[in-house]
Amino acid sequence: MAAVRAPLSRRFSVAPMMDWTDRHCRFFHRLLTRRALIYTEMITTGAVIHGDRTRLLAYDLAEHPVALQLGGSDPRLLAKCARIAEDRGYDEVNLNVGCPSDRVQEGRFGACLMAEPALVGECVAAMKANVKVPITVKCRIGIDEQDSEEALETIAGVVEAADVDALVVHARKAWLKGLSPRENREVPPLDYARVFRLKIAHPHLAIVLNGGIASLDRAAAHLKRLDGVMMGRAAYQEPWRLLGVDPLLFGESAPFDTPKAVAEALIPYVQRELALGTRLHAITRHILGLFRGVRGARAFRRHLAMEAVKPDAGAGVLAEALTLVVDAEADLAHFAA
Ligand SMILES: Cc1cc2nc3c(=O)[nH]c(=O)nc-3n(C[C@H](O)[C@H](O)[C@H](O)COP(=O)(O)O)c2cc1C
Questions:
Q1: φ, ψ dihedrals at 313, nearest 5°
Q2: What pLDDT digit, counting tens, does each position of 233-244 carry?
Q3: Cα dist. 49→52, 78, 259, 266 in Å?
Q4: Hey, is 210 helix, strand or coil?
Q5: Would you say the CB of residue 25 lies under 6 angstroms from ligand 1?
Q6: CB of 245 sitting under 6 A from ligand 1
Q7: pTM for the full model?
Q8: Residue 2 pLDDT
């Protein structure tokens, strides 16, 4: 693994995703790209302060650059948690102003903060005052009946005034009543043009586009207008895409030549984690899409789905699954294009 820490760049990031971007997933993604900025799942201020902090904030040094996403709306607690994150070596702290789940709404944070821009400004200012690491915000273009011209402009204005280091915009509204979190990632239409207008109005604010970016070609096109792109589901479900990030977006060589070489490089990590009591499936569930489109991919997935869940499953299960992938090199064409 790269011993030298890559500098933090927001040109390309992998989105924070609850239950998906845990530390095993992030370690795996880091084998695919040295340069992407990777995000944790959202962790609430309450969990950081009262929960099992060592477990919740654990990460592998190989993950750098890695950003911690916080959920919360109390400036004092957010400032405290940002300091804890900085002390633990996180490279950035991000505030969630985009999650629409009921649980989050009850806690008065996430997307409902779009309706409380002044409070978001206070949160950012309090975190900025307490740490040196960059503080960023991830938001929507609006919620419910809000006018997305006005709502996004207002939130951008307050966070810029609070000296935020970047604003990540998921380019669709969230409907807080009536849509599930999943529907809120699919039903409200994407409005990239709104984000492009925001950049023109705020040329000095670093703006990262998120939502529906399905290929690195699309990502590269957006980078002509914006400071960065954030990919969520496409990166998780088809992680082979990440092998193209360093060559296509940074002009650097990929960490490995093929997805198969990446999976092989994961085996020592798997062995280390199994020895610490981690179940194989907790790691291999994140790699199921690595060979999508390649001969043997289905057999690979099926083998892992059946065998890796067994309580005594060892690293050999992954090695066996890899022998089922017939033509790993072929899918290089996917990302070399
Ligand atoms: C399973 C899942 C969990 C998510 N959890 C979070 C989260 O914890 N924090 C957050 O800001 N967004 C979360 N999101 C939203 C993503 O970060 C991203 O904004 C969204 O998926 C749109 O990007 P995409 O179209 O590239 O996937 C989650 C999305 C998914 C699919």
A1: -60, 130
A2: 999 999 999 999
A3: 8, 10, 39, 32
A4: strand
A5: no
A6: no
A7: 0.96
A8: 43
